Amino acid sequence: MLQTQLSWPALATEAPFWDALARDVLPAYVNTCRWFAGKARTQTGFAVTSVHTVPTVRQPAYLLIVEATYAEGESEQYLLPVTLLAANSPNEVPDKGKISPLVCGNQEGTLIDAIYHPDFRTALFEAIRQNTELPQPDGSLTAVRGRGLAPDDTQPNSRVLPVDSSNSAMVFGTPRQETYFLKLYRKLFAETNPEVEMVAFLTEEGGFEHIPAFCGTLGWNPSAGRPITLGMMQRMVRNDKDSWMQTGDYLNDFLYAVPNRLFTIKEDVFDKVELLGKRTGQMHCALYQPRTTDPAFAPEPFTDEYRQFLIGRFADLLDRRYALLIDNYTRLDVPAQRLAWVFMEAKEMIEAFVEEFRTRPLDSLRIRIHGDYHLGQVLATPDDFVVIDFEGEPESTITDRKIKHSPLKDVAGMIRSYHYAVSAKLFNAAETQGISPEHLQRVSDRWFYLIRDTYLDAYLSEFGSPHPLFKNNNEINFLLLVYLLEKAVYELGYEISYRPDWVKIPLKGIIDVVREIEKIRISDQGHREEVPMLQTKLLNG
Ligand SMILES: Nc1ncnc2c1ncn2[C@@H]1O[C@H](COP(=O)(O)OP(=O)(O)O)[C@@H](O)[C@H]1O
Ligand SMILES: O=P(O)(O)O[C@H]1O[C@H](CO)[C@@H](O[C@H]2O[C@H](CO)[C@@H](O)[C@H](O)[C@H]2O)[C@H](O)[C@H]1O
Known about the structure:
Blueprint: E1 2-4, H1 15-30, E2 43-54, E3 61-70, E4 76-86, E5 98-104, E6 107-113, H2 118-129, E7 133-136, E8 139-145, E9 158-160, E10 168-173, E11 178-184, E12 187-188, H3 194-204, E13 214-222, E14 228-235, E15 241-242, H4 243-257, H5 267-287, E16 300-301, H6 304-328, H7 334-345, H8 347-356, E17 365-366, E18 378-380, E19 385-387, H9 398-401, H10 408-427, H11 437-460, H12 473-498, H13 504-524
Parallel strand pairs: 1-5
Antiparallel strand pairs: 2-3, 3-4, 4-6, 4-12, 5-6, 7-8, 8-13, 9-10, 10-11, 11-14, 13-14, 15-18, 16-17, 18-19
Helix pairs in contact: 4-10, 5-11, 6-12, 7-13, 10-11, 10-12, 12-13
The protein binds adenosine-5'-diphosphate and the ligand O=P(O)(O)O[C@H]1O[C@H](CO)[C@@H](O[C@H]2O[C@H](CO)[C@@H](O)[C@H](O)[C@H]2O)[C@H](O)[C@H]1O.
Adenosine-5'-diphosphate binds near residues 167 and 242.
């Protein structure tokens, strides 16, 4: 129980109170939060490093910046908005939003995550709508309205979106007409969030329309130091589901036919996959602006520095994944253990392949990309797609998230996602229980290759040939394999940590790439002449 003689509004500058919170309450609380990324690291403590006041209609809320420190590696900064919920308050707060019982002077209640208080949500919305600057002793909170928000559009109703993800999302509008989506970033970076940069560039320079319209930002401008993005607002997209769920629905039709030895994919499915390939291509065309004056977005060649960065990062990832796999080997089921063996045996070949990246001539260009592109990042509207979440790779530092890559890295992300979708569906369904794993694998591969090639064809046909982003088919093939491998190796860690039953999926993905590398090796035999631009069956010979 937290206790203080002072009243809640007097706490802004009461350092001992925030110290007690950081010491006695936050270590347990923060580790229950989905947004806290430091759970697997050895934590050495928490500190509240800033307390910013946000006036709301009844009492202030406080935006805390909490620093998490670790035995090894860099510390991290997290945003935690807090407020006092009075004991008799009618507001309902889910358990995950309750931080601690609290007595403040003669007031008793619960310290809660302020996103669960409607007054706090309204205060944020109003601050953005009115372009408000809230002065603080050591800087100011700055809210800026974007073009997608009408200045007179007040929104008294709001709710927290019940998705458990790395940030927190609030929605404004009535249940019939939810209009605005406000994301509060949890893990903070001492600069502009890459998502804000990407959305601004795609809208203003790229003219790409398949993202939600930009409605504003919320930031912290310290008196000393660089501005930090705290949140971003966009138009709410009316959607029934994201593309992961939509693909799952299509796969149900496919799955029900498998026990009858029928292979069915409806034309509608191909239409959707083609459309997503096209939209992905358009997104990358919008990001490719050779005449931009913004160096953060100017296309760049495959420099030695970039090659070194990618190889170093991959080698590190590979080592960490091998160690994780060995530590968790006995927890895996037998089929996963078999795949794990194949993967371990392929280590040298993988390393040699990635090493080739150091010297291989590459004339394709690199640009800023989505960076964490998969089916769950694309909302499905009745007849189109809207791309969201441009924050970049969750495990990367802010500097790494802003590095330019071949757009084929996003393409590889989406291809991996289709592989996930069919594998998760076929291997986990009651309908396929009696079917031999070998047959299931064949059927699953067939679906995957058809869908992958459909997506890839539609994607590449958005670019004229030749195009500065893709020099030729050799480079497309090679880069796609590099990024597919990197993504699948990354996923291996995610699955071991969060979904051990799914470890087979990235392992199979890695082994498929290793087979492709073998094929290239056999056909390459020392000479590398140009391969004509064939867009189908790009990877399977
Ligand atoms: N503009 C939007 N309109 C409607 N729903 C959205 C919008 N942006 C995101 N969402 C929903 O909120 C979820 C979380 O958003 P996302 O940007 O992926 O956040 P995070 O960075 O926390 O992963 C998404 O999976 C999607 O369901
Ligand atoms: O969406 P996040 O940025 O939180 O990404 C993490 O979680 C994803 C799962 O939600 C995970 O994606 C992997 O599983 C997806 C299916 O659930 C699949 O579509 C993706 O292709 C696969 O990578 C992602 O790797 C992780 O970073």
